[in-house]
Amino acid sequence: MFKVPPIAADRLPGLLAAAPKAELHIHIEGSLEPDMIFALAQRNGVALPYASVHDLRRAYAFTSLQSFLDVYYAGASVLLHEQDFYDLAQAYLARAAMDNVARAEIFFDPQTHTARGVDLHTVVGGLHRACTDARQNLGVSASLILCFLRHLSEEDAFATLEQAMPLLDRIVGVGLDSSELGHPPEKFARVFARCRQLGLHVVAHAGEEGPPAYIWSALDVLKAERIDHGVQAVRDAALMQRLAQERIPLTVCPLSNQKLCVFPGLAAHNLPQLLEAGLAATVNSDDPAYFGGYINDNFTQTFAALPMLTAQHAWQLAFNSFEASFAPEADKRRWQQQLQACFERHADPA
Ligand code: HPA
Ligand code: ZN
Fold first, then answer.
1. Would you say the pTM of this structure is higher than 0.85?
2. Ligand 2 centre from 9 Cα, in Å?
């Protein structure tokens, strides 16, 4: 482990911003900013249940995951054409580049779009073109993760996988998102087994609002390589031990947890506890347009609210993000070296 040199506390926010990092938990539909929702609604002639940006923003007072998802799916209804998906992903990737994101693994929800008659080729075509351009124009490496909506049936997930078959070279893996409670991972055992056979990486949301049992079954039944959120793991000592021992990454999203009332506030977040227990936690934005900040906001606000978090933790979180990514090993090692160099540059003068 790299021993972080002494760094004055007032330099920490600058360091958090400057550090190269990977973002592994970002729903592209959750990066749809209110201004873009209204611009696309106008461009595509879609009627919205909100009169203005101000009116829409007033709906962002969430009390739970479901209260957010209702607004999130309404927002996504403006996405119709390949160019819409391109514009959305391009805007996110340009914003991520400003936060020194070197690698982004981007979730998308095909069923949200195919249910409205949008072809999966249109969705993946636009998103993938933005990922390709980002490498060239922004220096950001980006890949796509197709998420199944867990409030729908496994049969529906299989139908989505079938539609995705000609597009598999454009996605790096599959995930599981949407309403967690009442929809345990094991509901999707067969479709995830098929995805693994196809050589896809596998991740799953578990333990955001749901119990530790959902994290166990994401690992044991779905064979998830990373757990998205996972913050409820602290309720189960044996699970914490397993996550630490196997270095299973958790993609933690502090501002999301705050907005969806998973914790009463950032000061009550359990990120320090996860790190102290030796878990491979990472920091991510989830749905930045809805939760009040992109990845660097997540880092700086969380560190400001939790003064026990140090520069050593900052380095560990960014290091973990590369370790946990599905990028080629050579890229991961290069980014980790850049991370170390960044911390050395920020060290206090000897
Ligand atoms: N949890 C589950 N589903 C989601 C989320 C989330 O945080 N964001 C977008 N879809
Ligand atoms: Zn999520």
1. yes
2. 31
